[in-house]
Design a protein that fits this description.
The protein is mainly alpha-helical. The protein contains 19 helices and no strands.
Length: 413
Amino acid sequence: MTDPSPSAPPAPWTRPDLEAALAPYACRPSATRGRLVAEPESASRTVYQRDRDRIIHCTGFRRLKYKTQVFVYHEGDHYRTRLSHSLEVAQIARSIARALALDEDLAEALALAHDLGHPPFGHAGEDALDAEMAAYDGFDHNAQTLRLVTELEHRYAAFTGLNLTWEALEGLAKHNGPVVAEPIDPADPPMWLPFALRCFVPRWDLALHSYAGGEAQVAALSDDIAYNNHDIDDGLRAGLFALDALAEVPLVGETCREVREACGAVPQTVFVHELVRRLIRRMVEDVLTESRARLSAMAARTAADLRGAGRPAIAFSDAMAAQDRELKSFLRARMYNHYLVNRATSKGRRVVRDLFGLYTNEPNVLPGEWAAKCDRAKGPATARAVADFIAGMTDRYAVREHQKLFDTSDMPL
């Protein structure tokens, strides 16, 4: 299959009523830079609605159901997984995008896709995989998301990946802001770029030196709001810290007093829900106030103005950013580094290390389509194929593979 150069897209289906409601600085479906492979567009969906739908229907999205957020999937049915987290991020992103007159569908698509590249066992699994890949260009889950939607998903006859719009790919590549300080030569990207970005940029320049569009900035900040607040809910549910200790964080303490005044004596489950919903509201309202002030100061007239502004247009105020850091510090100490969480993630790291070592030493034990991508034992192509294979695993699939390959108790004596 050939990989044609980007070309002007066929005229996309547009919603004049939708675009009339968008701010001048929004990404407009009618002004998309198109798709890497030109294809007929939908007669009933905008290009960004189509991006969102392709993400929801892809295999990687379904796998998020059994990928760790903080708690490994088997520890309880009510804790967040990567899938429920992504849905919650999308809900917040839509709300913020609507209030700022940005394109809701693009913001939602980016929110739903932002964690597709995460390996099993959360950040512990990513750290283990990155360490194993240190001699092979490393591993980064944000870059892996781009690799998945441009290369690893095989669902369409005309192209590999999902063939998302330039604006969607840009937003995924720059989820955490600009990747490089200055423009790079797409034909010769620097070797220190994450592997997936370095491979893709020669195919299509994503302007890695600039900020992403406003919708991508909304999705990134919505991720921050969602995981902070829902980790509070999960941490309290798991008993990793007490509500009284959490209330020592100024932002949370203020909100706790607000809940007590408004609700009186209620069961703790109700109190926690009221606390979390109010914290989310406070953060969202702060983002809206600060972002409106920044957008006004920027006098942005196009999406390109936001990309070239030199700082984020969508942001917390300085005061909220400081409170957000305090909350993160509490959760890091009391939840992410809790010994019960560490025990579970330690097992996850061992599973990833064991599988990587076995697969790279003996690529012939990989499923056929993955073994075909390998060059030799411990070769660079083998290591990258193994990293892609492991990154696509759910927690439970990784555990089952480990049991199949390392448990010899079922062998005849």
